[in-house]
Specification:
mainly alpha, 10 helices, HD_domain
Amino acid sequence: MLGEVAGVRPPGGRAAEAARLVCEEYAGPALYHHSVRSYCFGAAWAEERGLDFDRELFFVSALLHDLALVAPFDSHTLPFEEAGGHLARVFTAGLGWPTRRRDRAAELIVLHMRDDVAPEVDVESRMLQVGTSADVSGSGLDAFAPSFRDALVAAYPRLDFARSFVRLFQEQAARKPGCAAARLLAGEWAGRAASHPLDRT
């Protein structure tokens, strides 16, 4: 079970621990650390703004959101975020979550690669967008205190995350040229990811 990181606590319980174990086992160290950092960034952002959110739902979705990038769960037809949504629905069915809650986990994962969602419309989806953007490309990173960022990276180092993550997106784009990953690669996203400020500290 994870402990508190930089003032952000993870949820307790069977669902959170199962998601953590699955992510740690399948994602590899760099992607696992990214998933935890994404949770922490998103949760810290919401807490700073006094937003109420479902901590368990958000944690499970954050820990599962990139698993469809890795070989055991990769789809050669579906964009990784859509495949990841299906994975989340299957995973949470095993936990006994009701259909609506399973749908929500899938929705968060799909929407993290879509246009920004307003927090008053869907706070957890916006949190995952904030968390992943801050950690992958540095977008919105200035909203977080340097002390928070330093503590987070000390607890979950970035390792070779930027290079390996860009490569995963390149593999997705080569096989699924119409996917969101391909659209990001067509712009300046890869350069921003490769020059992430947290990799220069």
